[in-house]
Amino acid sequence: MSIQELKRCVEVRDGSVSVKDKAAARDMMDSLVYTAVFEADEEKKKGMLILIKEIAKACGAVPASIQGLYEEMGRNYPGFTVPAMNIRGLTYDTMKAVFRKALAMKVGAMIFEIARSEIGYTKQRPLEYATLSLAAAVSEGYEGPVFIQGDHFQLVRKNYLSGPELETNYVKGLIAEAIEAEFYNIDIDSSTLVDLDKPTIKEQQRPNFEKTADLAEHVRCLQPAGVDVSIGGEIGEIGSKNSNPDELKAYLDGFRETFKGAKGLSKLSVQTGTSHGGVVMPDGTLAKVKIDFDTLRVLSDMARREYGLSGCVQHGASTLPDDAFHMFPETGTSEVHLATGFQNIVYDSKHLPPSFREEIYTFIRTEYAKEKKEGQTEEQFLYSTRKKGFGPLKKKWWDLPSGIKGPIMKELEDKFGLLFDQLKVGNTVAIVQRTVKPVVIKKEIDSGLLGQLGLLG
């Protein structure tokens, strides 16, 4: 991508970006994104990412809150479950694969998300992740709202117990960074603070709903004019005991009593028997996951009927067998979070050269040796830790030849198609257009960068 090519299709006047040639902008996205992501100067990188994001918005890919759709779901469940996809590695290519399949199946109801922990080990700050989401949309010719979500913006229990204010302020800072990057969907997870030693369920949930209310008020103070950020809460830490109606009621009633704001939560994450990443056996295979779909049905119905929420959210589901996903819309689940299954397709693909896989594994064995738990087999250790092979070696992944990445992306695209079909989100563009009205929020682009690129008008 040359500066002259950029100048031919993009114009900046009074700080606002306009695109003179959408097709040319689309063709430039791959090189623009690569240049920005691997720019060594952090300020220049930030400026480039914001510029790309503004170009994307001018092309019709607009960051949006899913609040309007979820309010509609709270009134009348439409029979589909929204997939929320955590993309940890080969992020831009994978997002492009998502959009290709979404365009083919007319999918509008889908979310790209990244968790607090993933931001660290994948080395993708919110601005980068949001920019890749929008750039991938433009590259594939997708126009409309793009839902970008902060997943598991979590208070870490041990950190909170040793310094409540410090941990709270860290999460508040992360929320501020995410909203500035145009994440207009935020999942607050203070379920880690539930105190089961208390005598009543409401007292057990109190630290959870009080902290959720505090952080939700923080979100409402930061959201831009015209945007109602979709906020999720959580009652059961994933991997612990299954949630029940009494916990849901105690949490949501407590939140209502505590929260000071016009709009509260749009959804609620619950625990129904899954664990993040699945449970890996000593030989490296995954144990079968058993989800309590009856709990999902009961809690989703209760959340909608009594509290007007979109329903309940299922975490840790991507390693389920393919024939289980149809159960989510059948049980009224409003959203399902999917991550490790995509990572597994990439690492286990026959198209990934064994020598490259071994290079990543050698890095993991060296850098994360201290994380190997007593009694873990080599296969269990690598499976549980290989998610950390994406961030530090990001450029090596991005630089894989198209002859390798292309077939892997085809495998992922097939998986996205299966999930979209099972979750019944095909042909959801119309309901999204009806319920979601994205607001274009103009972000200031560094004038020094614009001068270097010859774009100052």
TrEMBL record:
This is Class II fructose-bisphosphate aldolase. It comes from the Bacteria. SUPFAM superfamilies: Aldolase (SSF51569). The lineage of its organism: Bacteria, Pseudomonadati, Nitrospirota, Nitrospiria, Nitrospirales. Gene3D superfamilies: Aldolase class I (3.20.20.70). It is an enzyme of class 4 (lyase). Signal peptide: none annotated. One of its GO terms (biological process) is carbohydrate metabolic process. GO terms for molecular function: fructose-bisphosphate aldolase activity; zinc ion binding. Its EC number is 4.1.2.13. Coiled coil: none annotated. InterPro entries: Aldolase_TIM, Class_II_FBP_aldolase, FBA_II.
